[in-house]
Amino acid sequence: MQIKFLRNLAFLVFLNLLIKPFWIFGIDRTVQNMTGNEEYGLYFAMFNFSFLFQMFLDFGIVNFNNRRISQNETLLETYLPNILSIKILLGFIYLLVTFAIALISGLDDRALHFLFFMTINQFLISMILYLRSNISALQYFVTDSILSVLDKFIMILICGSLLWLPLLNKEFQIEYFIYAQTIALVFTLMIVLIVVQWKATRPKLKFDFQFAVQLLRQTFPFALLGVLMSIYHRIDVVMIERMLGKEGDEQAGIYAQGFRLLDAANMFGFLFASLLLPLFARMLSEKKNIEDLLALSFKTIIVFAVSIAVVCFFYRQPIMEMLYHSNENRTADIFGILIFSFISICIMYVFGSLLTAHSSMKQLNRIALSGVVINITLNYFLITEYKAMGAAIATLITQSIVALAHIVIAKKIFSLQSNRKLLMNILLFVIAVLIITYSTTLLHMDWKFNFIAAGCASVLTAILLGLIQRKQITDLWKRTNGIDS
Fold it and tell me: Are 417 and 469 members of one domain?
């Protein structure tokens, strides 16, 4: 089991490293450079707007379905036809709610045109994720890993052709980027449907009102958490575009430049959390002590987060100059603020996974609601004064407060004791990384070499302080498969 798990994990990480960074930096970044901040800013604002009402698309069904089918595969015959019907109904509700709010917000015709395709794309993504949840629940992990990057692979082929083939790349428009995503998602959905039929059962439609009510009642707390988190993660760009008038699209584009690397880094934090959630859930169900695992996961991810944040902050200017063709100075400052929120986000991945495994949904929803209120309030005042920079500051403050709340609630629920030695080593690590990285900026060498040197020195420092220990990480993999160390 351990070898099988490690092989599947390695395959998943390999595919993500192969496909998604190329999508983010090869395609997405190139599109912004070619279309300009104003055009891309409108796209990015509508993209984030389409996220705000995802509660009506998923309603926590994917996680619920994955867990239930994993426990009892025979439920698939009943769940699949009913949930497919429910998902389609939720899609219509999502479309109506999103466009009702969009019209009230006063979006112009072009923005509504963009938003229409964004909502279609979100619906397609939601259907793909649901169907994939059945495949992963049946433990076809390699198949699911391939399907997880299939849409991005198809988008790379389509957009790459439009961007780089001499006959097609002369007048690239942002609309092409949106349409390419829709086409790729349609093809992906068709392929996933075929795989579900091959691996599990033929997808059918059947609507049972009683089943729907019972399902949505059980998944509502997860749905509410999802929508609240989407709001305080995504509302900033929408507020930039809405509050700043004619300048809104350009400022949203500038913000998107700084946000892109944070989004890329979050991908790896999410993979880490996907390991922790089932592990915490199993240990809690077996009434095992989770403090050792919590300390191990916390110090591992904090080393990763602090190293990335500090090194990227000191080299923010050359990084932005390498990636973009305009607004490098403003983007670099915004990125420098945003990247520090990655530390808080990683902390939430650890403690949020623990609280979710414990089913502490009431506490998690209260924290998320507080995050929404804080973020919208800060954005309202800071965007007016500081524009995209204000939104970055609001994001950093919000994520920091929310991360602290996760720690406080987890400590209260699980009666966690403060590990002073661990906290002292982390503090020493942070100070050492700051000094080391700053010192590398004084070297008269190519910044890329200095960047890599600072990263390697950070990892070495973590090893010397005992924050990274090979045996402990090996034990983590073993326990994930229920194998005693």
Answer: yes
Cα-Cα-Cα-Cα dihedral of 26, 27, 30, 36, to 10°?
-150
Q: Three-state SS across 337-351?
A: HHCCHHHHHHHHHHH
Pair of tokens at residue 4: 């099988």
CA–CA gap between residue 118 and residue 305 (Å, rounded): 31
**Position 226 in a domain:** no
Residue 6: per-residue pLDDT: 46
Q: What is the pTM of this model?
A: 0.80
Task: Domain count for the chain, please give it.
Answer: 2
| Cα distances (Å, whole numbers) of residue 66 to 194, 214, 219 | 19, 17, 12
Average pLDDT over residues 110-126: 93
Average model confidence (pLDDT) across the chain: 85
- Are 157 and 15 contained in the same domain? yes
Per residue in 287-300, pLDDT (tens digit) is 888 888 888 888 88
Q: Tokens for 433, please give them.
A: 């990384």
Q: Structural domain of residue 192, as residue ranges?
A: 1-207
User: What single string gives the DSSP state of each residue in 100-125?
Assistant: HHHHHHT--HHHHHHHHHHHHHHHHH
Cβ contact 383:235 at 8 Å = no
Q: Which amino acid is at 237?
A: V
Query: Over 50: is that where the pLDDT of 424 sits?
Result: yes
Cα–Cα dist 127/54, whole Å: 12
DSSP, res 73: G
Final residue before a domain boundary, out of 190, 207, 224: 207
Burial classification of residue 434, based on how many CB atoms lie within 10 Å of its CB (0-12 exposed, 13-18 middle, 19 or more buried): middle
Sequence-separated (6 or more) residues with CB below 8 Å from residue 155 = 23, 27, 180, 181, 184
Q: What phi and psi, each to the nearest 5 degrees, are found at residue 169?
A: -95, 15
Same-domain status, 390 and 294: yes
How far apart CA 46 and CA 116 sit, in angstroms, is: 9
Q: Is residue 219 part of a domain?
A: no
Tokens coding 96: 């109506």
| Residue 310 and residue 384 share a domain | yes
Q: Looking at the structure, tell me whether residues 264 and 134 fall in a common domain.
A: no
Residues 64-75 have a mean pLDDT of: 70
Indicate whether 143 and 285 sit together in one domain: no
Decide if 360 contacts 283 (C-beta within 8 A): no
Confidence of residue 377 (pLDDT cuts 50, 70, 90): very high
Conformation bin of residue 140: beta by default, left when phi > 0, alpha when psi is -120 to 50? beta
> Using CA atoms, how far apart are residues 101 and 98, in angstroms rounded to an integer?
5
106: pLDDT strictly greater than 80 = yes
Q: Are residues 5 and 137 in the same domain?
A: yes
Asked if residue 180 and residue 47 are part of one domain, the reply reads yes
Can you say whether residue 36 is alpha, beta or left, with left for phi > 0 and alpha for psi between -120 and 50 degrees?
Answer: left
Asked whether residue 9 carries a pLDDT value surpassing 60, the answer given is no
CA distances from 205 to 82, 92, 185, 263, 399 (A): 6, 16, 21, 36, 41
